[in-house]
Amino acid sequence: MYGNGNGSLALRRIGIDTYRENVVYIHRDCAIYRAEGFQALSKIAVTSAGRRLLATLNVVDDSEIVTPEQLGLSEQAFVEMNAPEGARVHVAHAERPSSMDAVRRKIGGERLSQLDYKNIIDDIAGHRFTKTEIAAFVVATAQNELDREEVFYLTKAMVASGERLAWHEPLVADKHCIGGIPGNRTSMLLVPILAAHGMLVPKTSSRAITSPAGTADTMEVLCEVDLPLDRLQLIVREQRGCLAWGGKANLSPADDVLISVERPLGIDSRGQMVASILSKKVAAGSTHLLIDIPVGPSAKVRHMAEAQSLRKVLEYVGHRLGLQMEVIITDGRQPIGRGIGPVLEARDVMLVLQNDPEAPHDLRQKSLRLAGRIIEFDPDVRGGEGFAIAREILDSGRALSKMNAIIDAQGRRQKPLSLARRTIDVLSPSSGVVVAIDNFQLARIARYAGAPMEKGAGVDLFRKVGDTVAAGDALYRVYAEYSADEKFARVLSSDNSGYTIGRIEDIPRAFVEP
Amino acid sequence: MYGNGNGSLALRRIGIDTYRENVVYIHRDCAIYRAEGFQALSKIAVTSAGRRLLATLNVVDDSEIVTPEQLGLSEQAFVEMNAPEGARVHVAHAERPSSMDAVRRKIGGERLSQLDYKNIIDDIAGHRFTKTEIAAFVVATAQNELDREEVFYLTKAMVASGERLAWHEPLVADKHCIGGIPGNRTSMLLVPILAAHGMLVPKTSSRAITSPAGTADTMEVLCEVDLPLDRLQLIVREQRGCLAWGGKANLSPADDVLISVERPLGIDSRGQMVASILSKKVAAGSTHLLIDIPVGPSAKVRHMAEAQSLRKVLEYVGHRLGLQMEVIITDGRQPIGRGIGPVLEARDVMLVLQNDPEAPHDLRQKSLRLAGRIIEFDPDVRGGEGFAIAREILDSGRALSKMNAIIDAQGRRQKPLSLARRTIDVLSPSSGVVVAIDNFQLARIARYAGAPMEKGAGVDLFRKVGDTVAAGDALYRVYAEYSADEKFARVLSSDNSGYTIGRIEDIPRAFVEP
After folding, report:
1. CA of A303 vs chain B CAs: smallest distance (Å)
2. Which of A20, A257, A343, B379 is most buried, with most CB under 10 Å away?
3. Any idea what the Cα angle at residue A91 is, between residues A89 and A92, rounded to 5°?
């Protein structure tokens, strides 16, 4: 990095949200801009009173936005600069971050060292990479697949890039699902069951990014999830568990930056996936971790061999990081539970906790199975006894009491949220048996209907794989709040309902034991 | 692509130049924004009266910039939308362009088909790729090196992405240098020599992007270079040649988009380089092309083997495109000529044309050699006679007359530009012989001094490789207009002058015959 900033400019906050990319606005007639020979989209270093920030240049022709004597910063950049409006700031060219050399070596097919990964991740977390430089790293590491040692280096560097929570207990349990299965809200059942057993389960979750609901979105139907860290720690101490949004804690911030580039590109390589999952868990202070890999033709992981290879990398890297880990492969052929969307999924969870006869059986069974495996991390529990313990906690109502206590502690929502007003019933075109439900298509319909932004929007499944239907029977109901959303979900679901109706012998066999 | 735009917004032009990335500004309280569930940096499709544009979303909190009822477009996007302020526009989510599937297959190591390259380039030229998607393509094709058939497909698709000039003559000559050598302004000598010989040389050049001067920047010292296409064609018809800026003609526009991502990343793979060069030349209507590959330790191409391999790909793809091509490998161990920077390089060119005894010999010799090879494309010229013909045209003053006629036709600059006011003489630290001059470092010093933005800024070399110097002798003079530039060029040149002084036997041997 270098700079030959002559003179200074007055800082101005520009009310433009450029998300994770810092943008600096400079007027075309600004003397410094002209002297420095900046070009639009150049990367610029802005300094003020010892603080330094890198940002992408946008050139402004309108003095209402910035004058030639001012330097504007987009919202996030202004916050990060942490200087008042009017403060004197200097600008200079920013050179490429030095770790881009390592990225170029990776593009050339080299294996990178622990130090290379540390430098790259430090530069990414420090916002010294542009979006295109991050994309270069993401593609380079996706294309020349990282070996498991490199994945370990990457994960370790990502953990080190942010805060790390300490719970001061020998067993801090957590669970992660590889994803891609709509519904599947098992965490909201695991946490009350495990906390009722006495295990520490400080669960922090993300909001949905590409799915119709995340655990945080769904828990938010019932109570507050956006909690300051000190209150979270108090709740966990008292209740042994929580179900909160993890966005506040600055855990593995490089992961958030990488994801903001990976998602739009649709690139999610094995190495990046493992580093993303494990860095977040280690930073959150977990010691014991269960990972669920659902496998199915429309799940994220489609083949058993792929699941097994992913499992090996997870186990290797988890072990190197000092995690106690179990990886299980589950049936990912269709959504788990009936509801897809925050209100509908919260309903399913509460039905299971209430031991309601209408509760979705598959959600209950899967949650008990996962809970059982985690309970067996407890040294006092014999192998094989976990499932029965979990079932007893659920059947006795202790899990429900614990859930209510956690909801109250986090701040129960006073007025319950209701389902969206507009509905579409999607009907079976023929008689037969449901042989397949496309996870991806159902998630897409729920999103088009408005989930997760509209919490009451989504899809409620009336039939699952193996059920018999007559022509004209409703397969599922779509809920939408707005007419535009309704219209679009209607077009999408009539184009492709996501259901295949056939004969019982057409049902693909489960990839795993149920 | 899909859309469920409900309602419309009023178009507003936002005076922000976001270069090659379209940006759309929407207020956070805009009802459509909320209903659609857009996120900052989402890609949005904007439609108005049948026109459609993709842009990246910036969310605005300041109603002075846009109100909740307006939709703002950045400068270039507004121009591209081609609708008046206040026009009703609709917005919708933009899905990933379908050709991103092919990019993902390339990341997975596949060879892509002709149709894949066509679809990718169409989407890139149509601004349907985001910057990160373009970076993914650039890295994927750099990492899994394209085979020569793929390079041909890519080049062909790039030609088809824009306009194609037609000169209606059987021999349209052009020359391209791979670059990386400061000075080296041979095109400005080739064009008058070849045009005086009667060959058609409609030369369009770029401005400098990372170098201290391009042919267009240097020609601009003498005359207009930014000419409308019809005037350019008139000049070429009358003079047989021109030296203009090619930016107006929309030749291989996908190349410009790719370069805007490749340069900041510092990625320039062989396949991309070949496609970039040849697509521009074919689109410009060239039929006969000479390519100069300078080789040297601080040139773009460092080793003879690399130059040979590049030459083979150029020859193969050029042949498939129907070009008559010669590729020559030249000595790239040091700058060609004395001046580095527009005014200084224009001076060198004019000295050679005027047959001035002070003219830099190496620039004269190299230009004659290149001109000779191109003259031999003329079926009436015997092999080996080109050099003598070129020399006769230069020595007789016919090249100078032709250059003056071209300058007058393009619009001679009335007031000559002068050198920058501030100078630094960089002195030799010891006595001996100049054994090496670092092309990259000299280019960098000239840029820091202000070239090419300040046309009078740059570096004037007093000594070249092989020259004897005494300690304290000036090696070169830096010219800068502004004190900040002077200061910074001083720091850079005193840190590393770019010169190595040693013994005559330390001079590395030329990679090629002189």
Report:
1. 17
2. A343
3. 155
Query: Of how many residues is chain A composed?
Result: 514
Residue with tokens 């270079």: B225
- The pTM (predicted TM-score) of the whole model is 0.81
Amino acid found at A428 = S
A73 and A46 Cβ atoms separated by less than 8 Å: yes
Distance CA B91, CA B150 (A): 37
- DSSP 3-state assignment of A380? coil
Q: Which chain A residues are closer than 8 Å to B65 by Cβ? A: 14-16, 65
Q: Any idea which residues of A carry the catalytic annotation?
A: 268
Cα atoms found within 13 Å of the Cα of residue B469, Cβ hemisphere only:
26
Q: How far apart are CA A351 and CA A118, in angstroms?
A: 46
Pick from A411, A487, A417, A410: nearest CA to A445: A487
User: Quick check: helix, strand or coil at residue B225?
Assistant: coil
Residue in B144, B152, B146 with CA at minimum distance from that of residue B108:
B144
pLDDT digits (tens, 9 = 90+) for A82-108: 899 999 998 887 777 889 999 999 988
Is some CB atom of chain A closer than 8 A to the CB atom of B380? no
Q: Which of residues 78-97 of A touch B (CB under 8 A)?
A: 96
**Interval A361-373: pLDDT, tens:** 999 999 999 999 9
Distance in angstroms (rounded) separating the CA atoms of residues B161 and B154: 11
Quote the ipTM score: 0.74
Binary contact (B265, A18; C-beta < 8 A):
no
CA angle A310, A311, A313 (to 5 degrees): 65
Q: Reduce the secondary structure of B275-344 to three states and give it as a string.
A: HHHHHHHHHCCCCEEEEEEEECCCCCECCHHHHHHHHHHHHHHHHHCCCEEEEEEEECCCCECCEECHHH
Work out the angle at residue B422's Cα, subtended by the Cα atoms of residues B419 and B425, and round it to the nearest 5 degrees.
100
Closest residue, chain B, to A209 (C-alpha): B39
CA trace torsion B225, B226, B231, B234 (10° rounding) = 30
Q: Which two tokens stand for residue A347?
A: 């309903």
